[in-house]
Amino acid sequence: MIDNRFLAGKRELSEDDLRPYLQPLGRSIDLSPIDERIEEIRADDDIKAQDSIIDAELAPTLHRTLDLTRNEAADAGLWHYLCVVRFPEFVHYRWDHVFNPESPGNMEEKFLKAGTDAYSNALHRIWWGAELTYEEGESGGVKHRDYSRTKKVLGFQELANDILDHDFARYTPVTHACGDLLCHDTLNDIKEDGTYDDPPSNSNIVSRTTTLLREELTVRRVETMEDDDIVETIEDLRDDVMRLEAGWS
Amino acid sequence: MSGKWGFTTSRPTDARYGDDVAKYAMSHGEPGLKTFVREVLQNSNDARLENDQPARVTFKLESLRGDEAIEYLRALDIETWSEHANLATDTKSGKHIAEAIKRIKDDEEIRILTIEDENTEGLLGEENADESNFTALVRDVLFSSKSGDTAGGSYGLGKAVLWLYSGLSLVMFNSTLSDPDPKKRSPRLIGRTRLPTHKSEDGDTVYQGHGWYGSLNGDEEGARPESIWGAEAESIADRLRLSRPDEPGTSIQVVDFRVPTAEERLDDEELADQITGMAIEWFWPAVYRGDLEVAVEVEGETKQASIDEYPQYKPFTSCLNDRDDSVSQLDNPEDVAQAEMSLDVPKKSDGGGGADGQLDLLVRRADTGEYQHRNEVAFIRGAGMVVEYYDRDRVVVGNQDFHAVLLGGRARPWGSDESPGDADTIVEEFLTAAEPPQHDEWVRTETLANSYSRGFRTAVEGIKSDVTETLRGLVAPNVDRGATGPQRLGNRFKIGNESRGGRSERESPSSQRVTGDTNISFDDVYTHWSFNGEVEPLSDRNEIRAVTVSLIRMAEERATTDRLPVQNISSNTAGVSISLPEQKGVQVGRLEPAPGTSKVSFEGVSTKDHRQVETRMKVSVDVAERRDE
């Protein structure tokens, strides 16, 4: 059913079309806040279609509205439904540039991947990006959650991809540290200090540092490391990268 | 009468010890119960007297409570000891000790493990001798003085293990000497604790951290207490539950015994079972030959460790038993075949030694039901300890299941009528030098590099591939390669890929047309990776045109695009031209053999790698149809 015509946005699939395949979640969630937020984003002149800022801007509303357990969120069918039936226009608005009729896989996964792949599906990705980076507010309630780190991570596509696509993302002390230490704000501050002569671009710093971190994790287990140790490890690797002393090739 | 603790003082400028260097060297390995049992038994096994009696080792586990515990701790002069321990709590190991003290107080219970051996040398040697059993076990940290150069432990780290397994870092010794020198009045009693460096309360005196329990001569501050002898020692030993039979040997008591890595405290029975199990697992050769007896005593009940109780090691002892009836082909279950492997021991740096040595491999075809340790090769030399079980599962696709024993050094003729020859003694010495402090493999060590001339590396690193090659000849299924089709067989061959911290194998894309073996491991001595391998085309019609070796950094979930430069590569295949070109900016090793070459072997090293993260070797082989020359 998910063919090139659908992926090109030339055909729609309704709930009726998919009726035989749908299963109820077991509770009802009012999705209208997400609709409204998408409307606002699309109406904002400062936000261009296909920009990663879209993910950052939608994340707090999406994550608050879809107040799922991780167990529920691991059900790929839920995300397939949301992307294919409920929010296909949003998926097109955010990802149309990856559609290539010759190799439709890249677009297809924006609708259909999910499960343990936190990187591909357009909405699943935003939800997990938020889940792995938000801070609980004092009340513990949904309303008071702090999504400032989420916005920094999802607004920086390289950083979001390098976190979500890798195993270490399953451990929030690491995603929090990566978000704090590798976001644009932090990197720009360091560059302004002028400590490093000729630091690479922020995207390169992120990509290189997370690669070195993944290599480091072949011999260390993050789950056995203290939070301070995680932060220090990432800082050290980042500094190596900024000094161009990290096996740069 | 009671012994007293004394702590040696040091100048403020002397080296300070947060902990014990030897403790670290050991715990780098695996400070589970296995390390302890192996090291302790090896100590006793090595000190066995030269007669036809076995060394007898008994592990006694006791938990003392109430008055018993109080009486014991009083005899231990725990008050003096505590004063020092309390001054040393600001370091990490000091904290662990403080925790242990608190636990003992809270539980009102202390567990002690006493290891009593008989028919061994005992703690011979003057109080201040440069080299003796006494100084080695009780005083020195990193030296070994076991009899002969081929005793099991050549690093002297074995005894450091003892303190690691004492929550209080405190170990007591009581020994009956096999020789009237230095004194006739056995037993000899002394205790030793290793605390972090600490200062006296007023801050004026620095204590190095080493403390001894014994008799203090005079009141000199910082003097080292010496051994207590004879009747006095006997009476103190009695109160310390450390009395021993009147036979030569040593009783060692680990106070507040614990397994450092254990998450939960095992109960005495479980601990006893594990000790006997491990004793047989690692020392069945010595037990089988009647050189070693091991028992465990819990609450007055003694249990002897016997091979009968652990039938999974029978296939190995059968290799020795049935060696005389060995066959040339393993046609039936329980058949034993033997093969010789050569080991060229290079001369020592001082010009001595050197021999065309030999290792003997005994292979026994497994019977149905013999699952444990199946397809493993037990590496053994004269010490009678299994150095390692080398897993050769699926050494050949569809191989016959087997158990094997590799005998080296003085163990080589075991099971036959032969006696070890001069060459075997030289091999024994070589293999001993090839064992790292944990004695759990034969590899290139610093000792080896320092004492042998060129060629030691090929010799020691070739052992495993020779074993593999020899096994292939013995356990390969009767398959005619041509008839089954090289492609089908070839698809199932794997290019091995040994990564640090374990073996792993994976299919290589080129494995459909070539077969071979590769190894890569990290060399702690030179801080680089060393690798070697051998490749050949599956079909006789093909030849190898080029081999490219690159070193790939792994990440948590898959390979990265990062490469570690190859520093050097060499080949002992004739006519191979060698170069180190760059691929994507990183140096790789490239071998281009002369026309007509089918098999190419190589070895090499990476550049220095301070990151030491998981690295694998990628071997790309260009294969083409053989050119007519």
Name a few traits of the molecule.
heterodimer, A: 249 residues, mainly alpha, 2 domains, 15 helices, 0% strand, B: Heat Shock Protein 90, Immunoglobulin-like, 3 domains, 25% helix, 31% strand
Q: What is the annotated CATH architecture of the largest domain in chain B?
A: 2-Layer Sandwich
Report how far the terminal alpha carbons of chain B are from each other.
Answer: 92 Å
Coarse shape of chain A? globular
Classified by CATH, the class of the largest domain in chain B is Alpha Beta
Number of helices of chain B: 15
Low-confidence stretches of chain B: 20-29, 141-158, 479-511
Give the helices and strands of chain A as they follow along the chain: HHHHHHHHHHHHHHH
Q: Sheet with the most strands of chain A?
A: none
How would you portray this structure in words?
The complex is a heterodimer of chains A (249) and B (629). Chain A is mainly α and 249 residues long. Chain A has two domains: 1-139, no CATH class; 156-249. Chain A has helices at residues 4-7, 15-18, 32-43, 53-65, 70-73, 76-86, 88-95, 105-112, 122-131, 148-154, 157-164, 172-182, 184-193, 202-216, 227-242. In chain A, helix 3 (32-43) packs antiparallel against helix 4 (53-65) and helix 4 (53-65) crosses helix 9 (122-131). Chain A is globular. The model of chain A has no long low-confidence stretch (mean pLDDT 90). Chain B has three domains: 4-309, 2-Layer Sandwich (Heat Shock Protein 90); 315-478, no CATH class; 483-629, Mu homology domain, subdomain B (Immunoglobulin-like). In chain B, a hairpin with a 2-residue loop joins strand 17 and strand 18. The model of chain B is unreliable at 20-29, 141-158 and 479-511 (pLDDT under 50). With 629 residues, chain B is α+β, with helices and mostly antiparallel strands. Chain B is built from 15 helices and 29 strands. Chain B starts with a strand and ends with a strand. In chain B, 25% of the residues lie in helices and 31% in strands.
